[in-house]
Design goal:
It contains 10 helices and 14 strands. With about 325 residues, it is α/β, with parallel strands linked by helices. The strands form 4 sheets. It has a 5-stranded mixed beta sheet with strand order 1-7-6-4-5, sandwiched between helices. Strands 8-14-13-11-12 form a 5-stranded mixed beta sheet, with helices on both faces. Helix 3 crosses helix 4. The protein is globular, with a radius of gyration of 19 Å.
Amino acid sequence: MTRIAVLGTGSYVPERRVSNQEVGAAAGVDSEWIIRKTEIRERRWAHSGQATSDLATEAAAAALESAGIGAHELRTIVVATSTPDQPQPPTAAFVQHNLSAHGASAFDVNAVCSGFVFALSTVEAALARAGGGYGLVVGADVYSRILDPADRRTVVLFGDGAGAVVLGPAARGGIERSDLHTFGEFTSMIQVPAGGSRRPLDPAAHALGAQYFTMDGRGVREFVADRLPLLVKQFLHDCGVAPDDIAHLIPHQANGVMLAQLEQDLGLPNAALHTTVTRFGNTGAASVPITLDHASRSGALHPGEKALLMGFGGGMAVGLTLLEWEREK
């Protein structure tokens, strides 16, 4: 099958900077506590007129420019999000319209914070089987709309943003393998309880605050510590790649303290850990592509180097992608 590579990257975060003091006031914590627990110093939140598709469109346009590809050349657009503009139609349809990518199919993927890696795998496989063409993969979330301002476990963590990549055929490099995992027995660990068919968002649900995002932080930390090192070890074994061969680790930006511990536990001695969490917080499905874009634009990634993309979050879900970087800065 045709080899598919990342041809361009892009990202966008809203202009509004939200300090630790601002989010901490209603949650009853100070900036020192937030930094100690998360390493986050600020995050960006969308203004009242911005929706997920607006952020996604900005990131997508930047990725298309980076790749030198016109929107009319796209075969498909997939948006990974758990904060869509509205329940239907898919947010990707708005992005397609905004870009005037009239020839592209467009749909959403919801695997929460693993969504970008799940979407990347889906588009890569489709393009490889089709023998080429160009695809756009976007991770975008506006978590500020679903956070309880008084819940210190969540409101201090999350920011809004979008990241995108353009995929297409390449003579060398490219995506080597992806593995996707879901552990449905842990669905209650990260959730928005109301707003779906099981529990409509009615006055009773509002009275209970069931419209807000909730997370068992300790359970998530234990899940990551217990599962990810073993999954990564098996993944690299299946790829036929030694841990020493990984030059870059681009993980979901869940929490800076968690990432520092995870870096030690994964056993990738030569891998540079790329982070954006201190500036942007946890941006959900956007965090992996935002971080990839910043790494690319900084010149940190070089052709021939291997990078491991790692998403993890609600579901509980884990997505792993191994790619050999192909494009120059």
